[in-house]
Write a structure and sequence with these properties.
mainly alpha, 71% helix, two-stranded antiparallel ribbon, 3 helices
């Protein structure tokens, strides 16, 4: 491979990595992985035992046998066919809790913050427009006063005769 082609490939790769959305995605993945451990601990340590108070201590223990006999044979191999719906319920709860925490602790506050920032920006623009309009009115009054002092006719047209 030629030296020039290697440089262009590396330059393209560097440009790809330096795009803002790639860096943001990488940060999100790392934070998400760390956050997942927290949510899993909450689900396994608090929510699963509370739900499991009706039956077993862990949701992973809930299962249904669809082909008997279900269990573990003498050789240590599972027998029958079981549906482990408790594991699915546990994963679903983990997902819902993760989504709720992300929404209520990250997305919602950020949306409110960005809305406040946008409102402040619009308010500043509104004040700036008001100042520009006021300055324009003052300049028109000055022009009209100068024309009146010279004894000339009132300005006509959009430019006021100037």
């Amino acid at each position: 491979m030629s030296e020039k082609k290697k440089e262009s490939v590396l330059a393209g790769f560097k440009a790809f990595l330096m795009r803002g959305n790639v860096v943001d995605l990488a940060v999100a993945v790392v934070i998400g992985a760390a956050f997942t451990n927290i949510v899993n601990s909450v689900v396994k340590g608090i929510i699963s035992p509370v739900i499991g108070a009706v039956g077993t201590q862990s949701l992973d223990g809930y299962k249904t046998c669809i082909k008997a006999p279900c269990g573990v044979g003498a050789n240590g191999q599972p027998t029958g066919v079981e549906i482990l719906w408790g594991s699915v319920l546990n994963a679903t709860l983990t997902f819902v809790i993760t989504a709720a925490v992300v929404y209520f602790l990250m997305v919602l506050p950020m949306s409110k913050y960005l809305a406040r920032q946008e409102a402040r920006r619009k308010a500043r623009e509104g004040v700036q427009e008001l100042v520009e309009i006021t300055e324009l009115e003052v300049l028109k009054e000055i022009r009209d006063e100068l024309v009146a002092q010279r004894g000339g006719a009132a300005p006509t047209g959009p430019r006021g005769g100037f």
